[in-house]
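Re: magnesium ion structure - here you go.
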Amino acid sequence: MEHLLSEWLDVANRLREARRILLMSDYDGTLTPIVERPELAELSPGVKELLRSLSHQRGFTVAIISGRAIADIKAKVGIKGIIYAGNHGLEIEGPGISFVNPIAHEFRPIINVIHYVLTRALGKIRGIFIENKGLTISVHYRNVEQANIDEVHSIVQRLSGSVEAAGKARITPGKKVYEVKPAVNWDKGKAIKLLMRRYGKGGRRSGLFPIYMGDDLTDEDGFRVIEHYGQGISVFVGEPDRPSLARYFLRTPDEVTTFLTLLLSRLQPVPDSIQETETGDMIEMRNPNQDLMLEEPS
Ligand SMILES: [Mg+2]
């Protein structure tokens, strides 16, 4: 893997060929640092503003692809007019797009049953948080005491046998979390492919330049799709000390912010000139023609 910021000049060059940029990103651990309780993972005002400004650029589309339920991720990010994919891409919403994986939809009652079973088996362990997200379930064990973690693993393993044997659901590990998903052939990678097909009809010749950033195992499916497409950037967020299908890495969500800042400045026109005021603040001198646009008298 190569450090994306170190390779920025090369990447900025490649962006020149792009006719449409599709910036797709995971949320937790990518745009926000990992926190003790998932409800506390807040998007900083700076990153929110960056994403909003990027989404307003011509030929630029922003999509957030998360394991959270779609209502949850929409509320967390809170930007209008961008695409949201929740439950690992099982549901997608945005301007001109509304998708729920039909098979996953039929699984809702089964997910409720599994949630009940998991809560009965694990509910007494202190610090466990079993989250029913409608189409999937997250078993968060970040706050479980070290002494009890083996118990969590063995109970989940025991249950996963019967859950998976029935062919109804799959249990996959993540960062201090188990994800229970319907056993459908769908993942973040498939959702990314769906978005790329929508915005890049005609394949690579369409000039679509996809970007995907993520920090966890479920994000590898996304990296695979980007790398297979051949033109774009796949970015693993974290220390590059584990194998990943991503071509680039950024160490922290702070480095992701730096990347977004670079991306925005690459796309925005350079102001005509910059002047320093007496107080030392930099002010932007606008194109003089713009000053002719007077406000309508009220
Ligand atoms: Mg994540």
